[in-house]
Design a protein that fits this description.
- This protein is an alpha/beta fold.
- It has three domains: 105 residues, Serine Threonine Protein Phosphatase 5, Tetratricopeptide repeat, CATH 1.25.40; 111 residues, DNA Cyclobutane Dipyrimidine Photolyase, subunit A, domain 3, CATH 1.10.579; 104 residues, 3-Layer(aba) Sandwich (Rossmann fold).
- Helix content is 49%, strand content 6%.
- The protein has 17 helices and five strands.
- The protein has a five-stranded parallel β-sheet, with helices on one face.
- Strand 2, helix 13 and strand 3 form a beta-alpha-beta unit.
- Bound molecules: flavin-adenine dinucleotide (FAD).
- Flavin-adenine dinucleotide binds next to helix 3, helix 5, helix 9 and helix 11.
Length: 381
């Protein structure tokens, strides 16, 4: 596995997957055959998360190969991230509560031996130690393995889920405020209240082709509880029409501007905004920061090839903005937190149509959202 930081590579990866492996996706997707045999899943999440390729183009390409019915599982998975994003947009306090909890928990656990052994892959669970190493080496874990990992972290190693979510964010190339936080909450049993994901030894054995043996797990755990409730906020994602010769901010979730619906708006200049560890609550590993930097640079090159005026800036420079400026909406997460913290009033957000349309279906669970997938596909693909 080698995640080259370029759109060209992302498209190659996606095309190869669709051509050769999509046909068996629903049958094989739950198997983790190890980092050298990843062709049963697409491995495109590091790119989708940065907007290097977007959901519409992925689904569009897949539908050129197979019908909706044959493709349904893959399309559902691709739209999970839209769903998680929308769910979080409607309840942003889940994100702020997570960060606040994390702040306190980190102090409590800074010298905790169990925690330090866990993040260094020194537990008495071999498969878990292996995955810690894999995560740090490749900055990616298979979806099923993320579920096993989180379940072991919470229920066998008995560590707070917030520390696990932080550990993933630090090392994953696809680290995403919504998919990650809500994924961990789901495993813990507080996302769907009372329903947790309790990993069983047979499941790991079966889906890793018996790679691991004698795995001692707590298989009889109870879900975690959290008394807080998160009512849906009343927020409209209002369309800002672009008028006049304006500048645009692009954050690290939209790094393929030329393939967005805003590409024809004739912005006078585009600022590609990098957010480093100085301004982040969750400090990212050097490799993850570099991945973001290189993807941003790749976007800069593509824009310049199209003679679009652009410049990479540090997020700290947003403090100096004193004119009206547009921004592709960065979503709930560290970039939006920074914008809110400096209280700039003259940013007008532009929302993707697919998000505005889909997020209204994120008020309930994914099974409800799934009913609207054919509509979303019909509308945007
Ligand atoms: C505890 C936990 C933490 C997670 N953290 C993240 C995260 O930080 N960032 C992230 O992008 N995903 C996260 N996921 C979701 C999922 O594991 C990854 O999106 C998936 O493994 C990416 O690999 P792939 O591209 O090969 O997926 P494929 O199986 O090939 O799926 C195709 C695409 O569908 C989307 N997708 C698939 N499954 C999910 C899912 N469960 N949730 C959201 N989108 C999905 C992704 O964009 C993915 O690239 C997490 C899951 C769990 C259980």
């Amino acid at each position: 596995m080698n995640f080259k930081p370029s759109r060209e590579f992302a498209i190659e990866q996606l095309d190869k997957f669709i051509e050769e492996n999509l046909i068996e996706y629903s049958k094989l997707r739950n198997f983790d055959f190890g980092p050298d045999r990843r062709s049963n899943v697409s491995c495109i999440s590091p790119y989708v998360n940065h907007g290097v390729i977007n959901e519409s183009e992925i689904i569009n390409k897949s539908l050129k190969k197979f019908s909706f019915i044959k493709n349904e599982k893959f399309i559902q998975e691709v739209l999970w991230r839209v769903y998680w994003k929308g769910w979080m947009e409607l309840r942003p306090k889940v994100w702020t509560d997570f960060l606040n909890d994390l702040n306190e928990i980190k102090i409590k656990y800074q010298n905790n031996e169990n925690y330090l052994n866990t993040i260094n892959g020194k537990t008495n669970i071999d498969c878990f130690n292996y995955w810690v190493g894999e995560l740090k080496k490749y900055n990616y874990l298979h979806n099923h393995t993320r579920m096993w990992f989180a379940s072991i972290w919470i229920f066998t190693l008995e560590l707070p889920w917030q520390l696990g979510a932080e550990f993933f964010m630090k090392h994953l190339f696809d680290g995403d405020s919504a998919s990650n936080t809500l994924g961990w909450r789901w495993v813990a049993g507080i996302q769907t209240k009372g329903k947790h994901y309790s990993v069983q030894e047979w499941n790991i054995k079966k889906f890793t082709n018996n790679k691991f043996d004698k795995i001692k797990l707590n298989e009889n755990s109870l879900p975690k509880t959290d008394g807080r409730t998160y009512p849906i906020i009343n927020k409209e994602f209002v369309d800002n029409t672009v008028s006049g010769e304006k500048k645009l901010l692009v954050f690290d979730n939209n790094l393929s501007f030329e393939n967005t619906e805003f590409a024809n708006k004739n912005f006078k200049k585009i600022f590609l905004v990098l957010n480093g560890n100085e301004t982040r609550k969750i400090k990212l590993s050097e490799k993850v920061l570099n991945f973001k930097k290189f993807l941003t640079h790749d976007q800069e090159i593509r824009l310049k090839q199209k003679s679009i005026s652009c410049e990479i800036i540090n997020i700290g420079e947003l403090k100096n903005i004193n004119e009206d400026i547009y921004a592709l909406y960065p979503s709930v997460g560290e970039n939006l937190d920074y914008i809110n913290s400096i209280n700039i009033k003259n940013i007008k957000f532009l929302y993707r149509k697919i998000d505005k349309y889909s997020w209204k279906f994120c008020n309930k669970g994914f099974f409800n959202f799934k009913n609207y997938i054919p509509k979303i596909v019909q509308e945007f693909i």
